[in-house]
Amino acid sequence: MKYLVLSHHHMDHAGGVRAFAAQGATIVTGKGTAEHFRRVLAAPFTRNPDLPSRDLKGTTIVEVTERQVFSDGTREVGAYVIDNPHSNGLMIGFVSDARIAYATDIWSPGAAPLPEKLTPPLAALEGR
Ligand SMILES: [Zn+2]
Hints:
128 residues; 4-stranded antiparallel sheet
C-alpha cells in the first residue's frame, strides 16, 4: 500500500488513519486539513493495543489543493477537492476510464429519491 486518500476529516471516515500511517502509507488529504492530521498523528497512541506503538510524526502527508491523480500504469484514480456544505477540504474519488465517482456524505444514492429541487450537496457534486 502506498497511499491512504481521506475523503474528509470526520472520524467516521478517518478513524483508521493511524493504522495506515503505521504501515507506512502516505496520507492524502484535502485542502486545509493536513494540519489536523499532523496533530492526530502526533497524539499519544493509546487505543489499539494490537498495533505496535510507533512515532507517526514523520508520516508524509500530501494536501491536495485541487486534484491529484494516481496511476498504477494501467488505471488512473483521481482525488478532487470540491466546495461543499458538509466539510472543508472534502474530496471525491473518480476512476476516469470506468467513469465512476465516489462521494461520501454528500449524496447517498438509494437512501431517498432525488429531490425535486437541487440541494447544496448535490450542487457541489455537479460543480455548481
Ligand atoms: Zn462527514
